[in-house]
């Protein structure tokens, strides 16, 4: 039976640690709970906020609606052949925990995505990615319940329309579904992606002689821990901004003015520029404004040192966006969703 709580602090439900209040909160443990939820009188009239791990969320004010915490658990092998295994996980499974399960089993494809905060259900919404790998590379399908009808729908890889930190769930069908489970197609024989970032260097420092799924995962974890603050210690949502993709002609022009500007060629016409570098050039790295600020080791990360307001972090983000655009002619876009 569902328990509806009133006037609940959402501080434990978001990694920024913002102390905003939800008018109502309910936690769903299974698909039956979702159906019961949709029968509630205010399910279709009140605003609804779907909560996974709360790691991609900035609460800028109290939420005058129904917050729904997704707790659906379970990991199972759906099928397998000589080369691949198809694994389904409940939307409420912790993402890093799921990745570690796959690493332990020797299933390859997700090891570069180790230690990313959040839940399995939220991962395809954002098409999370790191170190040359994105969810879309191993994603097979997901199941989701349509809020308006209660019907279950299957979304294939193509249906999700994955883009850079983007999917159909952030656009055409935003707010229309609750994802209940996600299925991945993982490899029994790994193809390692170690050329991106500091992975190869870190593997060498670790003394790794022979590549393995576990070694790559451990290298990624080591890198992330060295660069990114632990939300349990300092409130944050990881990378706050996307790395902008700009026309190659614009990049070449910037290169003349700023010879040190880094860039990663996407194709003949597009170059990706590290947002952290752009922000750091504007002097934001390590800046603190009372209880909020920009992290000392990674300019991409905005932080709440304790007691910070979401609206203040939002305003800081706007100032950073404006300063980068004024200097470089590049408008940064956020990865984090504002509520």
UniProtKB/TrEMBL annotation:
Which GO CC terms are listed, alphabetically? cytosol
GO MF annotation terms: FAD binding; UDP-N-acetylmuramate dehydrogenase activity
Q: Quote the catalytic residue positions.
A: 165, 239 (proton donor), 335
What is the annotated localization of this protein? Cytoplasm
Q: Which cofactor does it need?
A: FAD
Domain FAD-binding PCMH-type stretches: 18-189
- PROSITE patterns annotated for this entry? FAD_PCMH (PS51387)
Q: Which UniProt keywords apply?
A: Cell cycle, Cell division, Cell shape, Cell wall biogenesis/degradation, Cytoplasm, FAD, Flavoprotein, NADP, Oxidoreductase, Peptidoglycan synthesis
Is Acetylation tagged as a keyword? no
InterPro entries for this protein = FAD-bd_PCMH (IPR016166), FAD-bd_PCMH-like_sf (IPR036318), FAD-bd_PCMH_sub1 (IPR016167), FAD-bd_PCMH_sub2 (IPR016169), MurB (IPR003170), MurB_C (IPR011601), MurB_C_sf (IPR036635), Oxid_FAD_bind_N (IPR006094)
Catalytic activity line of the entry: UDP-N-acetyl-alpha-D-muramate + NADP(+) = UDP-N-acetyl-3-O-(1-carboxyvinyl)-alpha-D-glucosamine + NADPH + H(+)
For whether the record's keyword set contains Cell division, the answer is yes
Identify the domain of life. Answer: Bacteria
| EC code(s) of this entry | 1.3.1.98
The pathway noted for it is: Cell wall biogenesis; peptidoglycan biosynthesis
Q: Under which main EC class is this enzyme filed?
A: oxidoreductase
* PANTHER family hit by this protein: UDP-N-ACETYLENOLPYRUVOYLGLUCOSAMINE REDUCTASE
What role is this protein assigned?
Cell wall formation.
- Family in the record: Belongs to the MurB family.
Name of the protein described by the UniProt record: UDP-N-acetylenolpyruvoylglucosamine reductase
Q: What is the originating organism of this protein?
A: Runella defluvii
């Amino acid at each position: 039976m569902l328990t509806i709580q009133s006037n609940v602090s959402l501080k434990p439900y978001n990694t920024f640690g913002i102390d905003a209040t939800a008018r109502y909160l309910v936690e769903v443990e299974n698909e039956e709970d979702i159906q019961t939820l949709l029968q509630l009188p205010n399910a279709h009239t009140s605003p609804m906020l779907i909560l996974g791990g709360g790691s991609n969320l900035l609460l800028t004010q109290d939420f005058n609606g129904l917050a729904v915490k997704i707790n659906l658990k379970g990991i199972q092998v759906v099928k397998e052949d000589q080369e691949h295994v198809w694994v389904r996980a409940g939307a409420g499974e912790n993402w890093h925990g799921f990745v570690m399960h796959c690493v332990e089993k020797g299933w390859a494809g997700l090891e570069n995505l180790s230690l990313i905060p959040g839940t399995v259900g939220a991962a395809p919404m954002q098409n999370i990615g790191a170190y040359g790998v994105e969810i879309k590379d191993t994603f097979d399908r997901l199941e989701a319940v349509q809020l308006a009808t209660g019907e279950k729908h299957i979304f294939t890889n193509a249906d999700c329309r994955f883009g850079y930190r983007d999917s159909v769930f952030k656009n055409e069908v935003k707010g229309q579904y609750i994802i209940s489970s996600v299925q991945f197609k993982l490899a029994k024989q790994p193809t390692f992606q170690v050329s991106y970032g500091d992975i190869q260097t870190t593997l060498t420092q670790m003394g790794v002689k022979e590549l393995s799924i576990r070694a790559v995962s451990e290298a990624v974890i080591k890198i992330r821990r060295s660069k990114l603050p632990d939300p349990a210690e300092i409130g944050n949502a990881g990378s706050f901004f996307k790395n902008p993709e700009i026309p190659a002609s614009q990049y070449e022009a910037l290169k003349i003015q700023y010879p040190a500007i880094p860039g990663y060629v996407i194709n003949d016409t597009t170059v990706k520029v590290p947002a952290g570098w752009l922000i750091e050039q504007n002097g934001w790295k390590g800046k603190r404004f009372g209880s909020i600020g920009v992290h000392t080791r990674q300019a991409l990360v905005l932080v709440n040192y304790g007691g910070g307001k979401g609206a203040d972090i939002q305003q800081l983000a706007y100032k950073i966006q404006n300063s980068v655009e004024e200097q470089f002619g590049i408008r940064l876009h956020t990865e984090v969703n504002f509520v």
